[in-house]
Amino acid sequence: MNTRIRPPRTRQYHRLAVAALVTAALSLAGAAPAMASAPVKVVHTERVQVGPYGVTVGFSVWPIRAMRSLDFTFLPDGGIVGKSGKLLLNGPGIKPDERVTPLVRHPRKLDSWGLDVKALNAPGAYSFGFAIDGPFGHGDGTLQGVTVLNQPGPPLGSSWTVGSLPFLGLVVVLVVAWRRIRPGRQPLAI
Q1: Under the phi-then-psi rule, with left for phi > 0, alpha for psi from -120 to 50, and beta for the rest, what region is 161?
Q2: Which candidate among 99, 167, 168, 175 keeps its CA 20 to 30 Å from the CA of 41?
Q3: Same structural domain for residues 50 and 139?
Q4: How far is the C-alpha of 72 from the C-alpha of 69, rounded, in Å?
Q5: Are residues 120 and 56 both part of a single domain?
Q6: Structural domain tally of the chain?
Q7: Domain span at residue 162?
Q8: How far apart are CA 43 and CA 150, in angstroms?
Q9: pTM tops 0.70
């Protein structure tokens, strides 16, 4: 009978790999629902008059910095029931296909419209325009001069380089371990 018996070191590596995969899967599975249910904490508000409707625009981070995700909430006086509208974004980092979007319910702040974890990609002056239809008719209004500052932290290329070093180190360790063990080339034990 030719049966292959693995050396003890190989079994240890397999156990370690399985434990690492299970830990990573459980971490990701547990974090996703927690992140999705986190409440929106509005730290700054601005008021804009949209025809007959007053709208409170809320920001979850202030001041706004480029390439940093935040929540925007848009709450008209009297709530969103019976109203519909469009958001008209304008600024240096807005692509043409993102300029006009329908106002939709914020996924974590259900009593208002909003944008969930949106990032404005370039510094400069932005404007938020609104076109709202409701029981008092149609209204248009714009919140002008929302200033977005430069991206926080080091430049993006440097951040990616430093952030990639642990992954590259892991790849080197795995290659060295693979070359030392050489599974499939072990002598068969009889």
Answers
A1: alpha
A2: 99
A3: yes
A4: 10
A5: yes
A6: 2
A7: 154-180
A8: 19
A9: no
